[in-house]
Design a protein that fits this description.
alpha/beta, two-stranded antiparallel sheet, 293 residues, Pyruvate Kinase, Chain: A, domain 1, five-stranded mixed β-sheet, 57% helix
């Protein structure tokens, strides 16, 4: 049975841990609000851009572009968007479990985030590049990742590019999702609902002269497609960062609550042991007094 000194030391240790997890919870909470606002603010723009591209596609006629070239998939690139740090619950575990479904012999990994690159190196996967991104992702960071993927695709080194990221649904729910980035097929409309379900449905061209393209729909479409790919990657980074901060805040809150409950249990155990020791000492004193008297 542990002594009262051992229990006091353990209570002090748990209190120190609770202070750390509480501080991390507050930091993650502040970052979470900014990341969530950034992710939610980008969804309407992505939806409107898809709307414009669908109209341009309808007016471009027989249009071809290097980013739309379809060929037999012999080699595939996967942009794996993970976190730089841990302590965010099962977020990375669920994400990397999905990454395991890709064939290691036919898949090239492009990792954004240290956890993904560490996983790829540990399992000896073909790691083509590693990128870092900030707590609030910058468009330049997304553009660098996107350009590297576009170069892989247009040079013929890979025949398709997918993105595996964590979609932000709510503070308590984050889902790993896979999206095809290249080749660009039919323009799909992203669900801009704040629930973040991410449902995609084919966008039919709207009738009437809603958009007037100058100098022409095909020229506009050709210039917009690279930006479209860049912005998709940018939105995926924002969704992943919002998911990371939300998962970390929840994980640290759970850790703090568990530490507080453990302190209560240890305090109760300490009081019981202390009371038992006092009772034992009183009995010894009483027994000695009776023996002398």
């Amino acid at each position: 049975m542990p002594s009262t000194r051992d229990i006091r030391r353990r209570i002090k240790s748990v209190k120190n841990t609770a202070q750390i997890t509480k501080a991390m919870q507050m930091v993650a909470s502040a970052k979470m609000r900014k990341a969530q606002q950034a992710a939610l603010a980008g969804r309407p723009y992505a939806s409107l851009m898809n709307d414009v591209l669908a109209a341009a596609t309808a007016g471009a006629g027989e249009f071809s572009h290097p980013l739309m070239a379809k060929r037999e998939v012999k080699k595939r690139a996967l942009i794996l968007i993970s976190t730089d740090k841990g302590l965010c619950g099962a977020l990375n575990t669920n994400l990397l479990r999905e990454a395991l479904r890709y064939d290691k012999d036919t898949t090239v990994f492009v990792c954004a985030g240290r956890k993904g690159s560490q996983w790829a190196s540990r399992l000896k996967r073909d790691l083509a590049a590693e990128f870092n991104y900030k707590d609030i992702p910058a468009f330049s960071e997304a553009r660098a990742i996107s350009r590297f993927a576009q170069e892989l695709f247009t040079s013929g080194k890979v025949d398709a590019v997918d993105v595996l990221y964590t979609n932000f649904v709510s503070t308590l729910v984050q889902k790993p999702e896979t999206r095809q980035l290249l080749p660009i097929g039919k323009i799909q409309k992203l669900d801009a609902d704040l629930s973040g379900e991410g449902a995609a449905e084919e966008l039919t061209a709207r009738g009437g002269a809603e958009y007037l393209f100058e100098p022409g729909a095909s020229t506009v479409l050709g210039n917009l497609l690279p930006h479209y790919v860049n912005y998709q990657v940018f939105q995926f980074l924002q969704e992943s960062k919002a998911s990371e901060q939300s998962a970390r805040m929840v994980a640290m809150k759970n850790a703090t609550d568990n530490a507080k409950q453990l302190i209560k249990d240890l305090t109760l155990e300490y009081n019981k042991l202390r009371q038992a020791n006092i009772t034992k000492e009183l009995l010894e004193i009483t027994s000695a007094a009776m023996a002398m008297g």
